[in-house]
Amino acid sequence: MASATWRYRGDPEAERPAALVRFANGKLQRPDSLRFTVYRNRDTAHPRKKHRRILVSETERLCYVGHNFGNEVMKCNSLCRYFVGVLDKSSGQMEVYNAEIFNMQPLLSDNPLPDDTRDYQTKSYREKMDLCIEAFGTSKQKRALSSRRMNAVGNDIVSTAVTKAAASIIDAKGVTALVQDVAQDDVQNISAFLPPCHEDADRPEHVYKFEDILSPAEYEALRVPAAPLASITTEELAKRAEERSHCSFVLEELKFLPTDEKSRDHKARCLWFLDTLIKFSHMKVIKKKHPMGPECPHIISRKLMKNFSSLTYNNGSIQNLISASMRAKITAYVIALALHINNFQTDLTVLQNDMKLQESRILDIAKALRLRVSKAKEGPGLENDQNHKLGTLSLPLPTQKAPEGQRKRRKMN
């Protein structure tokens, strides 16, 4: 081996160390024909950005780009130092310079670094920012950019597919048929949350059977919590009305409890459960295991959570909430129970106020229950400034119609 003296010319703090390159997709057949261009970050005051470099090379077929920062940087640059030695054969001396390795990746793009900047000037601010993120952005910024572009493509595809599908359906069925289908769907959506309806019943009390609202075990469990209502005095009723301990419907019905002990106990249990349903409907998100308090029997609490709430996943945990569809279901069961309490005719307006619903909503549910709706005559307990609506369950049942909101829909051209 020929001996040679060498002299270190590198500076550890040098701004421009020598560049060593390796190509990720193989070896070059004619490396001497390549020319390289180095781009550096303009922010020379920043301690890290001033060392950032982009090395670009172009062959007849591909363009190659290498970085000394970001995801594509080789880890060996941070683990050890590299040097390049230049040997002067005449003097036998070698000069050694600092170096860093660039991993050259093929860039599959039509025009990665155009010489003509006219294209760049016509780009929007967002497009220019995207180009900057591609070149100098952090890993997090590049992932966000890629995700946004993927979402934009996905939204365009979905929008185009939906538009084509809607156009084909309209051409096939026609606008009038579609409007009728929507009205029928609304009827079916409400019907899915109604108590079981026995259309072939021979008596009103058999249309919505009491056992479908409260099972025998649930009815028996109401004996203890409903006992104070069965034995309530006039003074206690006045105090509860002042404190608004119960809804208006329950407070009004407590004034007319039967004298017969068995009938009185039955009505008290029904009123207690109806009041609990209405209070439960006012909740949005149920965070407690026993939302109605310790006095509520376990079997009733489980019935409320299972039959009248929806499960949702939020902040890493499963929660129960009262959705709009569940409120409609609660309203249907409240009306059905009120019919059993009031000899199958009940004041819908009082229930509407207690449940904080719009009149059109409770009327839609009442008609879905096959009730006949009529205006109530003025009498005790009715407010003169509000037209009360009565719902009556009678046989034969009226035919089911589309909700009022659909019949009033403006005709589409």
UniProtKB/TrEMBL annotation:
- A biological process (GO) annotation for this entry? DNA-templated transcription
Q: Quick one: where's region Disordered? A: 378-413
* GO CC, alphabetical: DNA-directed RNA polymerase complex; nucleolus
Q: What is its main location?
A: nucleus
Subcellular localization, as worded in the UniProt entry: Nucleus, Nucleolus
The alphabetical list of record keywords is: DNA-directed RNA polymerase, Nucleus, Transcription
Segments of skewed composition (Basic and acidic residues) = 378-388
The domain of life is Eukaryota
Matching entries from InterPro entries are given as: RNA_pol-assoc_fac_A49-like (IPR009668)
Q: Which family does it belong to?
A: Belongs to the eukaryotic RPA49/POLR1E RNA polymerase subunit family.
PANTHER family recorded: DNA-DIRECTED RNA POLYMERASE I SUBUNIT RPA49
Protein name (record): RNA polymerase I subunit E
Species of provenance: Lamprotornis superbus
